């Protein structure tokens, strides 16, 4: 890192408005990634104050530096790496007493610190009054008041950062006292730590490690350089326990809370006219045991209605754009030259990637709606309301939000599990999310349900597909929590922040971050899958056909007895038959016929088996593959004809089993890639693939064979 760049670590509790402050300071000059080996996001951004270049590292939201969660581990590692010139500690002004516990721990790092009392407007509305001069004296750090959502105080914040950065000897925060015996132990262990401390950790004071050894912090005690100090640290812990009647970790926490309580008692007061918070009034209804779930269902209905209603227009525009792009390339491409490349570009890349990117407006709108609900504080309530229900299946409320997102797309849903502190619960949720019926499966339902089920049954069948996915997901979670991820359930403690109106800026930044990640992780994989699918459905090329299709097509086109409409229909049919023979001869067709041997007990023939290959790349491709396999060109434009072909080939029972298998089988390639990335385990990724395949096969087998035995669904439901 350039020495002329001043580095700031932005630290604070979850829901303190830290991200808003980060966005205000850095704007769009941000970089989002992941810390190596873990799933916690790493955000950094650049800003300039006068002629001063600053890098801001946005640490994960944490309550302490105890190394008990992935967020706390990576926050400490970032600080351990050194090079931090200033800690910007963001405090929720309305919950200062709780937020300041982290401040007392950050003080032990002996780095210059600036306290940012954010959301000061909320605190004043609640009747809180602050003596910031006294607070600054208690903690040995200057204080700036801000309202991140409106930009209030940002100029003062920048000015204070600039002032501290140019001080010859910046002020250091006041370190807490822990009592005579404990302070004696800290001094003794500090001297011992200094002797064995490695060069890479010397940027962190030896006193900090001494305190962590006294607290019996597992991460610090496991470091090899401190192995020789463990016995001494244990002796001091026993001495402290004997003297005070409680262990050293609890004692030190009590002293920190005592310092905070004293400071808040002296410097923070509550007016007698403190008015009742609007949040409490709303929560009487939103978190009500009877009204909470119906209100949530209505909210989600509005989200999906917004997503699909508003998204329809840009989706149509994108479809026209990709269609025009393909037609344009076809029109300017020299006839007879590099036909394979033309077909690869138009049918493989534009057709495959374009078929997925048309859903991008829905994804973005869903992200906007979810970001809005998160920003208002409602999503925390939804998780709280669903907590009791989720406990029945070994999970808690925080697993509910990612599973809900799974109805839109499994990729961002898997990424959303990062908010779950418990590693077992997070992995369990990741493993079952793809059972939720994502938006990519909708084209399959939209094709099959109207073809096989009368109007009065269509809503019921669609509802069944979604319910089956939810039931299997929860059953899978219960099984996993009883076996692989067995352990005591985590206590679900979620802060319910006050309701706020999120800013458009923060919503758009969140949408942009998630959209970029979605495009990077999904679109690139779809591109590769589309190319692979094009190749295996093209080669080997069939040279000899059952009949001379080209001659027949020429004969139809030259006929004077047929109308233009009849010519178009017959040419389309002949071209489709020719394309079908080509596909059966290709690698994909041969694989499909091989798979049909295994899938025949499920009621699937070689055509369905072949289409399922494309479904692994992206569920939407299943419909397009069926269109080609049933000799229908442009399946999207002639879906009624395709539906009539399906009705001739399959029964409603087979159709239902096709949808059931597509719902439960292995997720798409993009989801598999994200699961590998988020779990950092090929073992769990392959276990998920195998598990989904087994569940889909067994349940579909039971439904098909049972339905056949009972003669259910063997006729159209009219």
CATH superfamily of the domain at 6-165: P-loop containing nucleotide triphosphate hydrolases
Assign the CATH class of the domain at 6-165. Alpha Beta
End-to-end Cα distance, whole Å, is: 71 Å
Identify the CATH architecture of the domain at 6-165: 3-Layer(aba) Sandwich
Low-confidence parts, pLDDT < 50 over ≥5 residues? 32-39, 272-276, 631-640
- The shape, in one word, is elongated
- Count of helices? 31
CATH fold call of the domain at 6-165: Rossmann fold
Q: How many E strands? A: 9
Rg, rounded, reads 31 Å
Main sheet overview? 7 strands, mixed
- Strand portion: 5-15%
Mean pLDDT comes to: 82
Protein name: Ferrous iron transport protein B
GO molecular function, one term: ferrous iron transmembrane transporter activity
Pfam families: FeoB_C, FeoB_Cyto, FeoB_N, Gate
Binding site for Mg(2+): 23, 26-27
Overview of the molecule:
By secondary structure, this protein is an alpha/beta fold. Among the domains are: 6-165, Rossmann fold (3-Layer(aba) Sandwich); 180-270, Helix Hairpins. The protein contains 31 helices and nine strands. The protein has helices at 18-26, 70-80, 96-106, 120-125, 132-139, 154-165, 180-196, 206-214, 218-221, 230-244, 248-267, 278-286, 292-332, 339-357, 360-376, 378-391, 400-405, 410-415, 423-432, 442-452, 455-482, 504-538, 549-558, 564-585, 587-599, 606-617, 621-629, 639-649, 652-664, 669-679, 682-709; strands at residues 6-12, 30-34, 41-49, 52-58, 86-92, 113-118, 128-130, 143-145, 268-270. The strands form two sheets. Strands 2-3-4-1-5-6-8 form a seven-stranded mixed sheet, with helices on both faces. Strand 5, helix 3 (96-106) and strand 6 (113-118) form a beta-alpha-beta unit. The longest helix is centred in the middle third of the chain and has 41 residues, at 292-332. The radius of gyration is 31 Å and the shape is elongated. The chain starts with 5 loop residues before the first strand and ends in a 9-residue tail after the last helix.
């Amino acid at each position: 890192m350039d020495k002329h760049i001043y580095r700031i670590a932005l630290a604070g509790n979850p829901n303190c408005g830290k991200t808003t402050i980060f966005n205000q300071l850095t704007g769009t000059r941000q970089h989002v990634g992941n810390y190596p080996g873990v799933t916690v996001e790493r955000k950094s951004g650049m800003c300039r104050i006068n002629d001063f270049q600053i890098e801001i590292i946005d640490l994960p939201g944490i309550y302490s530096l105890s190394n008990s969660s992935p967020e706390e581990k990576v926050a400490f590692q970032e600080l351990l790496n050194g090079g931090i010139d200033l800690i910007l500690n963001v405090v929720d002004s309305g919950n200062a007493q709780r937020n300041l516990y982290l401040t007392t721990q950050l003080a032990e790092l002996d780095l210059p610190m600036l306290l940012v009392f954010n959301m000061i407007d909320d605190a004043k509305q609640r009747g809180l009054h602050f003596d910031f001069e006294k607070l600054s004296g208690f903690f040995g750090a200057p204080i700036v008041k801000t309202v991140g959502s409106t930009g209030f105080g940002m100029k003062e914040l920048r000015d204070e950062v600039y002032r501290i950065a140019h001080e010859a000897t910046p002020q250091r925060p006041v370190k807490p006292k822990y009592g005579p015996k404990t302070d004696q132990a800290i001094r003794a262990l500090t001297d011992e730590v200094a002797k064995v401390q490695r060069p890479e950790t010397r940027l962190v004071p030896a006193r900090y490690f001494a305190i962590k050894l006294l607290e019996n912090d597992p991460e610090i005690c496991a470091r090899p350089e401190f192995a020789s100090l463990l016995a001494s640290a244990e002796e001091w812990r026993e001495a402290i326990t004997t003297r005070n009647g409680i262990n050293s970790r609890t004692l030190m926490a009590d002293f920190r809370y005592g310092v905070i309580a004293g400071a808040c008692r002296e410097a923070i007061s509550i007016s007698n006219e403190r008015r009742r918070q609007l949040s409490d009034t709303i929560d009487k209804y939103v978190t009500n045991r009877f009204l909470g779930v119906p209100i949530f269902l209505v909210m989600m209905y509005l989200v999906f209605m917004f997503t699909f209603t508003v998204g329809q227009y840009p989706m149509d525009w994108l479809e026209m754009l990709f269609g025009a792009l393909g037609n344009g390339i076809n029109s300017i491409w020299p006839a007879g030259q590099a036909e394979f490349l033309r077909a690869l570009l138009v049918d493989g890349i534009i057709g495959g990637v374009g078929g997925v990117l048309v859903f991008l407006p829905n994804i973005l709108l869903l992200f906007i709606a979810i970001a809005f609900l998160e920003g208002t504080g409602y999503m925390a309530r939804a998780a709280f309301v669903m907590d009791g229900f989720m406990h029945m299946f070994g999970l808690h409320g925080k697993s509910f939000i990612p599973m809900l997102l799974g109805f839109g797309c499994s990729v961002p849903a898997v990424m959303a599990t990062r908010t779950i502190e418990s590693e077992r619960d997070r992995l369990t949720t990741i493993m079952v999310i793809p059972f939720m019926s994502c938006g990519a499966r909708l084209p399959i339902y939209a094709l099959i349900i109207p073809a096989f089920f009368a109007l009065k049954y269509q809503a019921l069948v669609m509802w069944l597909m979604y319910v089956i996915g939810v039931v299997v997901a929860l059953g899978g979670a219960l099984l996993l929590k009883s076996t692989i991820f067995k352990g005591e359930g985590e206590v679900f403690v979620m802060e319910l922040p006050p309701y706020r109106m999120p800013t458009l800026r923060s919503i758009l930044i969140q949408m942009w971050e998630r959209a970029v990640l979605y495009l990077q992780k999904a679109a690139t994989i779809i591109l590769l899958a589309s190319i692979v699918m094009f190749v295996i459905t093209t080669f080997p090329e069939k040279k000899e056909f059952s009949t001379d299709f080209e001659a027949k097509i020429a004969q139809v086109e030259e006929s004077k007895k047929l109308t233009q409409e009849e010519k178009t229909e017959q040419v389309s049919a002949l071209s489709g038959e020719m394309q079908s023979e080509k596909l059966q001869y290709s690698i994909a067709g041969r694989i499909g016929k091989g798979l049909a041997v295994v899938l025949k007990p499920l009621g699937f023939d070689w055509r369905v088996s072949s289409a399922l290959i494309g479904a692994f790349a992206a569920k939407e491709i299943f419909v397009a593959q069926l269109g080609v396999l049933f000799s229908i060109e442009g399946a999207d434009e002639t879906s009624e004809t395709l539906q009539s072909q399906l009705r001739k080939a399959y029964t409603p029972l087979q159709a239902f089993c096709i949808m059931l298998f597509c719902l439960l089988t292995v997720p798409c390639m993009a989801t598999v890639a994200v699961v590998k990335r988020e779990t950092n385990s090929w073992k769990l990724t392959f276990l998920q693939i195998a598990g989904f395949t087994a569940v889909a096969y067994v349940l579909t087998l039971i439904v098909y064979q049972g339905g056949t035995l009972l003669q259910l669904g063997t006729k159209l439901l009219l």
